[in-house]
Write a structure and sequence with these properties.
Blueprint (H helix, E strand, L loop, with lengths): L18 E8 L2 E8 L2 E9 L7 H16 L6 E7 L29 H8 L2 E3 L8 H4 L2 E2 L4 E2 L2 E6 L3 H6 L4
Parallel strand pairs: 3-4
Antiparallel strand pairs: 1-2, 2-3, 4-8, 5-8, 6-7
């Protein structure tokens, strides 16, 4: 039969009462809004299209994600985590504003869609913003490859939340 992907977001039991909105766009995109300590946090879980799926499917995913992010006011925080099925590479190479210079492997040839998405929404790829041991970059392993395809994005102004757990 046909495989159905469904993303979700786990919420700590102490935070459940602070969730004010849950919105599932489709099986690959979901967002929750939590109001905690005066901050409105929007967490998006994204599972990008797999290699081999048609261009129309990939276009719809990108369009849905764009709409979701456009719908979040600039006064609210955004954290997007997910499998974007792409490689941003070790070097920022022209994307210093969104790529912190700490990546893994080689960028997909001609593939800058995640970097362009981050730039369009004034986001930063948080897990490229600080050094870590090589093995912590790898988010997918097989018998023939190790790669990083899972990323965390946030507004540039909120990068401190990802590094320290609180604003700078």
């Amino acid at each position: 039969g046909e495989r159905k992907e469904r993303v979700g977001i786990l919420v700590d039991k102490d935070l459940c009462e602070l969730v004010v909105e849950v919105r599932r766009v489709n099986g690959r995109l979901i967002t929750i809004k939590v109001v905690v300590e005066g901050f409105t946090l929007n967490t998006i879980n994204a599972y990008a299209t797999e290699a081999g799926l048609d261009k129309e499917f990939k276009r719809r995913f990108k369009e849905d994600l764009d709409k979701m992010v456009h719908g979040i006011p600039h006064t609210e925080k955004i954290f997007i985590g997910g499998d974007f099925n792409g490689h941003i590479g070790v070097m920022s190479m022209g994307y210093d504003d969104v790529h912190g210079g700490f990546g893994f492997g080689d960028r997909n040839r001609g593939e800058t869609s995640l970097l362009d998405f981050a730039r369009a929404f004034d986001l930063v790829i948080a897990n490229s913003s600080f050094p870590k041991k090589r093995e912590y970059f790898v988010t997918f392993r097989s018998s023939v490859a190790k790669t990083q395809i899972d990323y965390l994005l946030c507004r540039k102004s909120d990068r401190g939340f990802c590094i320290q757990g609180h604003p700078e």
